[in-house]
Amino acid sequence: MTAVRPEPLSSWPSDLSAFAFEVPHSPEALLFESAKGIRLTDTTGRGYLDALSGVFVTCFGYDCEPIVSAVADQLRTLPFNPPLHGTNRPALELARALVDLAPPGITTAKLVNGGSESVEAAIRLSRLYHRERGNPGKVKILSYYHGYHGATFGSLSLTGRPDVTRFGPGLPGVVHVWPPDCLEAFWDVPAERSGELAAAMIERTIEAEGPDSVAAIVMEPVIHLRGMAIAPADYLARIREVCDRHGVLLVFDEIVTGFGRTGSPFAAQTFGVTPDILCVGKGISGGFAPLAAVLMGGHIAEVLGEKGGPVSFAPSHTYAANPMAAAAGLAAVTHFRDGGYLDRIAALAADTEPRLRALVEGRGTLRSIGLLYGLKLVADGERLGERVASACLRRGLIIRGQDDWVVLAPAFVTTPAEVDEILGTLGEALDEVCGAGR
Ligand SMILES: Cc1ncc(COP(=O)(O)O)c(C=O)c1O
């Protein structure tokens, strides 16, 4: 049985006033010192098993040597290049590797620094595409209520969650639509019907807004902040058809689902639907550099330059396609492509999923696709996500919990013994918070 640790978990310096934390500072916050494999150590020497891959990032563990050496070599050779005067070799090679990993039809990659920038670029690209094709009025962007797309203003505007309204009105022209999961949760629509109904509602929304005014719809194939709401069968194919009928671009935000998470390189391949634009980030560098990319179909790239030739897309960012980040990305993507990871992911998922399902039985429901897991946990009307995540953390296990869900996304290098440890600790936390349940 894992020992439950007393709080506080780590020793903090007395003056913390200079640093702005992401979440309110609490006794549970950790001051990390080092990491190896999927294990982190804090400044007090306590260890934590990371079952979330950082936050869907460190898929190859915290010490993946091929990526570390690629970054170190690049820093010694060319740490930066004048971005207005050219680019660098790893950036070109990474763009090629990304396009080759993506579904056919995707031809071009623009490298940026993070997921939010990738979503911003997708918004700009969508509007530019229609303008260049003689439809400057197609500017509206549809996105989900309860999705998440980032913290910059455009991506935040697409994030249809009540907690972002405190920043005031978002980007003009953003229209929110309901995903199938919300139809099920809020209106008791049966799961077999939610995809069809949501797609029909999205089409009616496009018609009501005026198809001549709608540029794109941006969506996550698996919605993280709904506790991993997985797109129902045929739903994304229906959305593809709706988009094609109305000349609306389909943008997949695969910042969580990219790079093997759902069992294929991208969820686009898992679901068999190719979007016009694909936003990727997080696992793209394995956590060894801030990096993301927006991948686009040939028809989009064509408006940015010569057909089949080099394209340009400005304005950009000073650090976009930075050599160090590109070297990390190239090493990570090559490592993913050549390291037999899809087989490893399938084997890990086959071992983990039934055991996780058994753990959850009688206490909630499990959603799973590849190595992405969402557990919905409610008891006596109480939404237990945060309590379960906190009970895990006190036992040295990192997962994420909010509302009525917790999510796990184990690294692709998690060993069978580490899976045992993750499930054992999660089981104890569930016993503590939800009761024995079964
Ligand atoms: C689905 C999704 N899109 C976009 C983002 C924004 O990415 P970043 O935090 O790298 O800007 C995130 C981050 O969590 C995300 O989960």
Quick structural gist:
With 438 residues, this protein is of the alpha/beta class.
Task: Report the average pLDDT across residues.
Answer: 96
Q: CATH top level of the largest domain?
A: Alpha Beta
What portion of residues is helical?
A: 25-40%
**C-alpha-based Rg, rounded:** 22 Å
Shape: globular
Polypeptide structure, described:
The two termini are 19 Å apart. The relative contact order is 0.16. The longest helix is centred in the last third of the chain and has 20 residues, at 341-360. Strands 4-12-11-10-7-5-6 form a 7-stranded mixed β-sheet, sandwiched between helices. Strands 13, 14, 15, 17 and 18 form a 5-stranded antiparallel β-sheet that branches. Strands 1-2-3-16 form a 4-stranded mixed β-sheet. It is α/β, with parallel strands linked by helices and 438 residues long. It has helices at 53-56, 65-77, 89-101, 115-132, 153-158, 180-187, 191-209, 235-246, 267-271, 298-301, 323-338, 341-360, 385-394, 416-434, and strands at 32-36, 39-42, 47-50, 106-112, 140-144, 174-177, 214-219, 222-223, 229-230, 249-253, 277-280, 292-297, 364-369, 372-379, 382-383, 397-398, 400-402, 405-408. 38% of the residues lie in helices and 18% in strands. The protein folds into 2 domains: 32-63 and 341-434, Aspartate Aminotransferase, domain 1, CATH 3.90.1150; 66-338, Type I PLP-dependent aspartate aminotransferase-like (Major domain) (Aspartate Aminotransferase, domain 2, 3-Layer(aba) Sandwich), CATH 3.40.640. It is globular and about 65 Å long. Helix 2 runs antiparallel to helix 11 and helix 7 runs parallel beside helix 8 (235-246). Pyridoxal-5'-phosphate (PLP) binds at residues 114-116, 119, 148-151, 220, 224, 253, 255-256, 281, 292.
